[in-house]
From TrEMBL, chains A, B:
Family that this chain belongs to: Belongs to the QueC family.
Binding residues for Zn(2+): 177, 187, 190, 193
GO molecular function, one term: zinc ion binding
Keyword Nucleotide-binding: yes
Keywords, in A-Z order: ATP-binding, Ligase, Metal-binding, Nucleotide-binding, Queuosine biosynthesis, Zinc
Cofactor(s) recorded in Swiss-Prot or TrEMBL: Zn(2+)
A matching Pfam family: QueC
NCBIfam families, A to Z: 7-cyano-7-deazaguanine synthase QueC (TIGR00364)
Catalytic reaction list: 7-carboxy-7-carbaguanine + NH4(+) + 2 ATP = 7-cyano-7-carbaguanine + 2 AMP + 2 diphosphate + 2 H(+)
The protein, known as: 7-cyano-7-deazaguanine synthase
Species this chain originates from: Chiayiivirga flava
HAMAP family linked: QueC (MF_01633)
């Protein structure tokens, strides 16, 4: 849902959007099918899925033989669903594609709620990546520079739901659950499900999430 | 050859080394077999190859249907063999693996000669990546921090050859050529071949490179 709202925001700002998903070995691959659908519905120029095999390094409940736990939101420390360096890797791939396209802006959906323990969801991280991206690429050496936008950074999940509703995002096609089944039906009990449900409740909006029976 | 010398340097400094290669869609996959051999020969704890499909974004003579040119060293601008964001992507994957391992140091072989046009081979880039890595990971949030080492940064190719000879690197097993054949035999005419040959000549050392007939 975060990625869908970010795409809607970028579209509203007038950007021609090239949407990127990353198949990194996540359990919940139905999010990739959902992303293709959402990208079309929101008018992206194209949607691309790039594969990187993070299962070969493991270290997370999403990419190794570690069980995804029921929600531990509020617990201390970094959760086992944290995928080492995932946002760095995904932004790096986006940076490469941006350079091929000659794009001026990257958009990503990291936000403060996700920083209930994920180090790569903080404003300092995004600022450091923007700085890196401008040193790493033609844009920084020869061009006008590259911006990294994280418009959801300071929003709560309820804010994100409201912003999505305002922009006409159809949340019934988005998949958040870490244990989503092949059809995108959600488990109701993992961190991602719990944060999503709390967001819809706080926004006072009906939650269209399909749950496994 | 740069990666091999870096590994030898890290081993001399006493590090237990986990060697990473990235299969990113490069034409010259014989470098991956060579890397596995070199890692064993230099006493790495393990060698791992992670796949990321950069052919799906293209934009380089190494990963798209663009011909690798004969050497253009000395020409202005960024060469067509530049792979958009490659070093950022490879370091990001290394960062993820380092986090899984609990490693304290990353080593990479970028150097000043490679900066004959590649933006992601500059000291500012390495410094910015180190800063990013410390914001992106557990090491930066909970741990003692992570260092990114680029010991070849200020060396010429001749310096790298001499350092490798001092450390007992067997250069006959390293592959540099962008157009290397399946056996690792080199083309003699691309930028990578030319820089390598000039390095051996300047170091006054016999060059064990095998060339295609």
């Amino acid at each position: 849902m975060d990625s869908a709202v970010v795409l809607a925001i970028a579209r509203e700002q007038g950007f021609a959007c090239h949407a990127l998903s990353v198949r990194y070995g996540q359990r919940h691959t139905s999010e990739l099918d959902a992303a293709a659908h959402v990208a079309r519905a929101l008018g992206a120029v194209e949607h691309k899925t790039v594969t990187v095999d993070l299962r070969s390094i493991g270290g997370s409940a999403l990419t190794a033989d570690i069980e995804v736990p029921d929600s531990t939101v509020g617990a201390a420390g970094i959760p086992v669903t944290y995928v080492p360096a995932r946002n760095t890797i995904m932004l790096s791939i986006a940076l490469g594609w941006a350079e091929v396209l000659g794009a001026s802006d990257l958009f990503c959906g990291v936000n403060a709620v996700d920083y209930s323990g994920y180090p790569d969801c903080r404003p300092e991280f995004i600022a450091a990546f923007e700085r890196l991206g401008n040193l790493a690429t033609r844009a920084g050496v020869e061009g006008a520079g590259l911006r990294v936008n994280a418009p959801l950074m300071a929003m709560s999940k309820a804010d994100i739901v409201r912003e999505g509703m305002r922009l006409g995002v159809d949340f019934s096609h988005t998949v958040s659950c870490y244990r989503a089944d092949a059809t995108g039906a959600a488990c109701r009990r993992c961190d991602a499900c719990r944060l999503r449900a709390e967001g819809f409740a706080a926004a006072g909006t009906a939650d269209p999430t399909r749950y496994v029976p």
